[in-house]
UniProtKB/TrEMBL annotation:
Pathway as given in its UniProt record: Amino-acid biosynthesis; L-methionine biosynthesis via de novo pathway; L-homocysteine from L-cystathionine: step 1/1
Cofactor(s) it depends on: pyridoxal 5'-phosphate
The reaction(s) this protein catalyses: an S-substituted L-cysteine + H2O = a thiol + pyruvate + NH4(+); L,L-cystathionine + H2O = L-homocysteine + pyruvate + NH4(+)
A GO MF term: cysteine-S-conjugate beta-lyase activity
Organism: Paraburkholderia fungorum
The protein, known as: Cystathionine beta-lyase
Amino acid sequence: MKQETAIVHLGRETASAVRAVNPPLVRASTIVSDSLATFRKGYGEKVFDSLRYGRSGTATTFELQRMMAALEETEGCIATTSGLSAIVAVLATFSGPGRHVLVSDGVYGPTRAYCEKVLVPAGTDVEFYGPADDIKARIRKDTSLIFVESPASLTMEMYDIRQICAMAKSANIPVAADSTWGTPVFFRAHALGIDLSIHAATKYINGHSDLLLGLITGTNDALEKVRAQCDLNGTHAAPDACWLTLRGIRTLSVRMRRHQATAMELAEWLQNRPEVRRVLFPALDTDPGHDLWRNQFSGAAGPFTIELTKCDEASFARFIDSLRLFALGTSWGGFESLVMPAIPHHLRNAEQADEGRLVRLHIGLESPDDLRADLEVAFAAMTGTL
Ligand SMILES: *Cc1c(COP(=O)(O)O)cnc(C)c1O
């Protein structure tokens, strides 16, 4: 089955019992068993979609988990309360006193904050590495995890995932990736060698900006310790979020292709605007990460960053405040366009931060013509030519 077909047909196993197209939403805390044998079976086996207690999921959760594992071409999936809780579960599993964890620079801000404010004080040696750094030279005897997010949040640098995975494999170290930007449509995480692929399903997978959900995929072996971590911490997602995500995901492949087409069109147009110094988007052939992107992704998602030419605070505010279709808000991955001043965590104290102003755009499903017109008005307001 091609992926487009799988997105439509998987995750509907429980629908036929109620003769509906969509699977029913099953909410439960207590799960009741018809016999002692059934009760024991739920707890006794290494089966991850066995009914035990609401925290480990209901039929609704299992539908989404099975579907996501299939889309990611692997065995298992854990649904958690948010993208951040999924990242935290993975980092917490492989960290601890005396352990060394390698994390790519420019990871999602809250991922970095968790490393710096929780892992480091608790005794983990967290080392950040850049896209040009030699991973092999950084791997140590006590390295317990390599975490990568590519492209980097906000600054969009690409990492050589194949190379990172090859180095990690020869040293027997697991690699976890934040795969949110690529989605399973454009990014085959496990085929590239990643052991644990993490998605903020909050973004494109749900696609409607109305819930938080994290998904972690991998083989059952790779997931074993993470499952235990989630069980100990009660990190599991609510069935409601899984059910809405099963609705949202049906259009994922269509949405991604449209996000890509409009993002490409606007990025190319923005590149030639006098108000824009730089467009940070690996899908552009002028981007330093372009070859890595071509090599590892089959498409590009809708968020990218632009660097405006130097402007004062008042002009910058006029630019942001004049936008009508680009709503001012964090996040991305919904059907709608968004804009946000981007202050990358790892550049926060650096001089680069006040040089050019970085703005993160999320290109939604609107007409590219309308989005371009919206930006044109905002540029005119910014430069005072309106
Ligand atoms: C939004 C996001 C997250 C966090 O997801 P939440 O569900 O909002 O917690 C993690 N990684 C990336 C790359 C994101 O964009």
